[in-house]
Amino acid sequence: MKYVSLLFCVLLCASTASAQSTTSKESTSLKERRARARSLLVALSSDARTFHDQMLRARSLARIADALWQVDGEQARLLFRKAWDAAEVADQESEKKLQEEIEQQKARTGGSYAYRSPANVRREVLRLAARRDRALGEEFLEKLKAQRIEAAASTKSTPDDLTSAQNQRLNLAQELLQAGEVERAIQFAEPALTPINRMSINFLSHLREKDPAAADTRFNALLASAATNSQSDANTVSMLSSYIFTPHLFVIFSSGGVSTSQESATIKPADVSPELRTAFFQSAAAILLRPLPAPGQDPVTTDLDARYLVIKRLLPFFEQFASADMLESVRGHLNALNAVVSDQTRRRDEEWIGKGIKPEKPAAEREQSLLDRLESVKTSVERDSIYIQLASLAANKGEMRAREFASKIEDTEVRKQFQAYIDCSLALTLIKKKNTDLALEVVHKGDLTQLQKAYVLTECAKILARTDRDKASELIDEAATEARRIDVSDPSLPRALIAVANALKTIDATKVWDATFDAVKAANSAEGFTGEDGALVLKFQSKGSSSVYTTDVPDFDLNGIFRDLADQDYDRAVEMARGFQAEGPRASATIAIARAVLETKPQKGTKGPK
User: Fold this and answer.
1) Same-domain status, 91 and 184
2) Containing H/E element for 7?
3) Calpha distance 473→19 (Å, rounded)
4) Which pLDDT score is estimated for 125?
């Protein structure tokens, strides 16, 4: 037994020593990988400072700084400031180009125009910096405020500087919130949450989805301040009501009509406590039930009209939740207002008064209404407008009838342009519904570009991967074929090939490296390819209307595919990234590779830097 015990102890010690040795080696290997990734980024930052394209310079420096922050904060802070300098120039250049494009479109169409908003590079730099360093974020916010004041002075405009600064702050806070940085988002938003406006209430609604207690506390403070503020009016109440009853939907009444803002397709009341709901009704009543003008006094018509319409809009909530005494007071005040407001106000469209509260008309009813109107229209322009609306309704439901409606448009040029717009819209809807059969029918019968076809085919392949791998593989081959029909100088070619490589990850991972290499070769022949901002942009423009629909497509970008490749084989991924001849895609791929090492622990069985 002594010999057995001794042998066991020897084996246990050997096993422990081996485990410690393995752990030590893994720790050393991780340090080496991170050191090499840091060196990769530092070398890239030296190159990025000389990039001719100011947008590329700003984005590259900011993303390098973000990736370096935890390993070299001082260097990262320096790079953030250089990124900001480049972003200032980039935004000025983008704004100038945008105005030139708008003027050109107006000249062609007689006044209408449609455009995709250019990237706001300063906002991108600001968001990344604010996530890492609050003081640096505040510094950039102040610079942005000063630049807006200077721009307003040069154009002789007089914007509300305070409102503008608050909006910038809330925009930043919203982006931080979307990135999951809840505490940092609250820190930046706090100074801008005192005024009651659409942006402050909307931010609190978004915050409530992540931290209900924090949002409710700040909303309760707004209720208390609104009730005692003499400047609060009916539209203040309408905005406050959004937080509880119609999150992300705002309805504002004025003498000229009604304005709405809706961010979410589905409106669902917030699940607030009875105490907070009661506090809302108390504040709302304090504002809405203020005395009417005495007889003989000149009433402020706009205020009375808005008060009448807001009470009418919110009355169902008072009836459902408020006390009997308060409800009686609100009804009595509504009757008093009914005697002083204009006939036009009393006849105001019920659809707007009940928007977000009453169920909207079913799509079938709206469609039938449009079909009925077809019988009475007198001009082809009016008829075409109705067919455009009918096609859009059908496309939103994923119905092939959308193509039939579009084909009935009489104006040849409008029909051709709209058919392409609606076919891609329909295909995207069908992908969301995972209806691959109809999506593929649109690919084969519709008017889609090769890039759009390649995207739809790869998306269908990913949907079918679990149930029919052979069919999925065929679709990827078809997508690659469509991609290669794109002109070699078109940046759409590498985007489509990257989408193919991304789809192969779930179908046949052994082919991903070769597919990515094909994309690299294509990128070297495609002028203007940057490796980011992948999107499908659908434009429709006529003399009577214009529309731009943009959907981001991460599978067109280099970031995801190169992060995955770096996890598999760091050195091979680096070599492939060096194969890009242009600065933009090389920088994008290199940053993705470095982040894969600096932000995640290596998985067992992967090959890191040697």
Assistant:
1) yes
2) helix 2-48
3) 43
4) 95
